[in-house]
Fold this protein.
Amino acid sequence: MSKALVIAEKPSVAQDIVRALTPVDGKFDKHDDYFESEHYVVSSAVGHLVEIKAPDEFDVKRGKWSFANLPVIPPHFDLNPIDKSKGRLNALVKLIKRKDVTSLINACDAGREGELIFRLIVQYAQDSTVTTKAKGLGKGVQRLWMQSMTPQAIRDGFDKLRTDEQMQPLANAARCRSEADWLVGINGTRAMTAFNSRDGGFFLTTVGRVQTPTLSIVVEREEKIRKHVYRDYWEIRASFGASQGAYEGKWFDPEFKKAKNPVEGSADAELKADRVWSAAEADAIAKAVDGQPGTVTEEAKPSNQSSPLLYDLTTLQREANSRFGFSAKTTLGLAQALYEKHKVLTYPRTDSRALPEDYVGVVKQTMEMIASEDMPGPLRELAQHAGKALKEGYVKPNKRVFDNSKISDHFAIIPTLQAPKSLTDIEAKLYDMVVKRFLAVFFPPAEFMVTTRITKVAVPGAEHCFQTNGKVLVKPGWMAVYGKEAQDEDAATLVAVQPSEAVSTDDVAVNALKTKPPARYSEATLLSAMEGAGKLIDDEELKAAMTEKGLGTPATRAAIIEGLITEKYIIREG
């Protein structure tokens, strides 16, 4: 009987596939490197099993650190088994070549890298099969594309296997990326090492297609910090007495106009309406208004604030870094464990923040799970919010959340229908972030009343203006899901004043300050800079090419940052 060989990316995923298929296909027999049933043989890689390399005749062994042997551009790439996983590769090749195996199913991670892992294994098996009589394997290929690792999601994936033709563009993109990395890496590294070692000694200088532009972003920021010239400026703050109590205001120039597109860190960028550039002028203003009467005008208007969008990997890494200090690598590892081991999150290596348009029903089922399950620890309080969302009918078709045009390979990271059990403390923190965002995005906007108060103090020959801002939360909306976390702690509730009320200027303070250089990157802000790298480029054509995806992918940015730290190009402090 003919069988399909299913190749997963990791042994744990192979076991999950076997568990999901057992009710459908009957018992699987366990062998050393694979599982077998009536219709399927299920095995796995352990990540990459082969790597690309230049053919031996193009591989410069001696004098490779010399400009004389550059550039290295082989006409094609050979494949080399990775030493530590040779046994696993040989076992897979043996299974691929089995007579009763008539088709192959790629069950590696549903992304570009998973496509490459599978394609290179099949190519290696094919190359070792080619004879003068028979070329290739002659076995059909299909693709298992999974958004989550629950048994039902795996069975659904088998019901909707993708064809080899459908996957060819992704396979081509994967191969291009791999070969481009090799070409840039080997030529750049050898050239820069030769250049830096030209006066004697040996200074290995690694270069990478994504690594080097990322390093450039950090270096440019560091140069701006080092070149920054501190400038003194002054702020003037006054305390005003009204009939209902006191309030503070900050002096500003109502005639000030901001420069168009100022360069970050330039003198133009440092100009602001509330800054005075000489101590004498600041003291003169303070002296003139002190003790003088003022008149008040204010504008109060309602303001709505919608919840942030669902998480993609980069946003999740950024916020986990800001809130908990997790490195991008740590967040990716936790998200992968929640997806693969606990099966409580959908596929995490995504760059999308929307859901498919036919996912409304699944979202309601997920809400029901959160509302009904006895969630561990602090997650328990989220059940009431899920219950409210269902009761009030918050989950409905909405282009902000459900939009097929905003989804590439995978949709946003959301909880699955599986309830969490035995999560570690840090896994629970990340899961809590995702569940809160998932609930909040369906809740109504938060409603505020925003007040801008201008106090004008008239003195001989001039009128000085002071601004006070207030913000009052009227209806919490989605912020209720976050409790106090989302409240703006700086927002002030102002004492009431009557229209055109006369107030007294009771106290005036002049604060001497200095301009600051741009801040050094944290992992959160570096991830943002990589994602939006197109904005940093002047060339319009290159800017357009970079705009869609930025530098690297959500799945690789963490590894790029860790690589720069390993190479000691950058250091992590705090």
